[in-house]
């Protein structure tokens, strides 16, 4: 749920106050990455570190923080990286939440904890055990992050692709944008799916703006499957991979043959028992008539490529958010009510429309899986 390697580069000093201090890791890339419950933590405290601590998860709100939940109080094992299964898991965690902790202390002794020295950061802190809503953290330690990594259950789904998948229509940035997860998630396709399907649909967003299918193949898939750039457990155990990509391939004049080669390699990497869902390319009102014709041709090719692959579904969503262009007589423009005004990115309404098509495709996929299982007598 968060990603970090542990190095003993520096020490953050704990509290001199008897009530201790609460710390938040405000480094953007160290925020929580998926919907889940925090069930385990890896941590590193110094040999003379705190005698009591709690893990906390906070959600930003208008420049302050609301407590999502906290673990039990425990005495940390000091001096080396430790793993702890929480007796009281922290539920309700969403992408973008901040990882933090409370360290107890005595009135006369500072309690150091190891930290990671980075160009980013900072670590925020306040006196006492911060709980409730609208909590302020007025103190800042620049250039450091907390030595904490939290773990939950594997997500049901991982999603990848370009800015439309990531939710850039509402200025949301996912993990692989190297700044997030942060911003307004309302146009993130997976979040809209979760609102339709229910909270049991957990996901992790591996999309990034301006990317092509080549990037999905050579960068996103290794990150999902092998932990390149994120913790190795991030994608293990997922049941579904969702992809929205292709408009940048058209923009960059990539051929269908090149994209098909990416499709073939992505499919070869698909874990056994995992479904692959691929969206059609959506209309782009900025494209001239020739490129718009390419969009329609690519979408037909998507369908042809998927034929006979029982674990692949093409989500038919192009026409859902499009309208007829006068010069072509075809659905080549993005409907104004579904876009942000730039002719390509979806607003919340547009993301919800595509998410509804996705949810329907997902329902049909599992219906067909059940039918095949029944026919085999499973």
Explain how this protein is built:
The structure is a single chain. This protein has 378 residues and is an alpha+beta fold. It has two domains: 142 residues, Sandwich (Jelly Rolls); 220 residues, SGNH hydrolase (Rossmann fold, 3-Layer(aba) Sandwich). It contains seven helices and 19 strands. The chain has a six-stranded antiparallel sheet, with no helix packed on it. A five-stranded parallel sheet has the order 14-13-15-16-17, with helices on both faces. A three-stranded antiparallel sheet has the order 1-8-11, with no helix packed on it. Helix 2 packs across helix 7 and helix 3 packs parallel to helix 5. It is elongated, with a radius of gyration of 23 Å. About 2% of the residues have low confidence.
Give a brief description.
This protein has 378 residues and is of the alpha+beta class.
Structural key phrases:
five-stranded parallel β-sheet; 2 domains; alpha+beta; 19 strands; Rossmann fold; about 375 residues; Jelly Rolls; 7 helices
């Amino acid at each position: 749920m968060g990603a970090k390697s542990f190095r003993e580069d520096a020490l953050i000093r704990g509290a001199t106050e008897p009530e201790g201090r609460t710390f938040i890791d405000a480094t953007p890339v160290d925020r929580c990455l998926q919907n889940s419950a925090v069930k385990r933590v890896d941590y590193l405290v110094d040999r003379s570190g705190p005698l009591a601590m709690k893990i906390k998860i906070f959600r930003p709100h208008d420049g302050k923080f609301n407590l999502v939940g906290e673990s039990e109080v425990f005495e940390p094992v000091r001096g080396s990286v430790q793993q702890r299964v929480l007796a009281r898991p922290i539920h309700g965690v969403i992408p973008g939440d901040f990882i933090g902790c409370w360290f107890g202390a005595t009135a006369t002794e500072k309690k150091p904890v190891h930290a990671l020295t980075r160009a980013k950061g900072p670590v925020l802190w306040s006196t006492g055990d911060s709980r409730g809503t609208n909590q302020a953290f007025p103190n800042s330690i620049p250039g450091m992050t907390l030595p904490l990594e939290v773990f939950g259950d594997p997500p049901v789904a991982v999603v990848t692709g370009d800015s439309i998948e990531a939710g850039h229509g509402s200025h949301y940035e996912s993990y692989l944008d190297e700044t997030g997860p942060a911003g307004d998630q309302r146009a993130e396709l997976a979040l809209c799916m979760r609102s339709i399907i229910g909270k049991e649909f957990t996901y992790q967003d591996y999309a990034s703006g301006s990317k092509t299918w080549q990037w999905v193949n050579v960068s996103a898939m290794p990150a999902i499957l092998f932990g390149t750039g994120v913790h190795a457990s991030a994608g293990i155990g997922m049941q579904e991979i969702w992809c929205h990509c292709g408009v940048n391939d058209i923009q960059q004049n990539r051929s269908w043959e090149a994209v098909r080669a990416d499709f073939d390699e992505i499919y070869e990497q698909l874990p056994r028992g995992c479904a692959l869902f691929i969206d059609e390319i959506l209309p782009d009102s900025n494209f001239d008539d020739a490129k718009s014709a390419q969009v329609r041709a690519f979408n037909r090719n998507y369908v042809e490529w998927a034929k006979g692959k029982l674990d692949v579904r093409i989500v038919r969503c192009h026409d859902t958010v499009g309208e007829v262009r006068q010069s072509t007589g075809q659905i080549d423009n993005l409907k104004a009510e579904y876009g942000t005004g730039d002719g390509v990115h979806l607003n919340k309404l547009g993301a919800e429309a595509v998410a509804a098509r996705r949810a329907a495709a997902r329902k049909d996929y599992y219906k067909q899986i059940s039918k095949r299982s029944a026919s085999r007598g499973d």
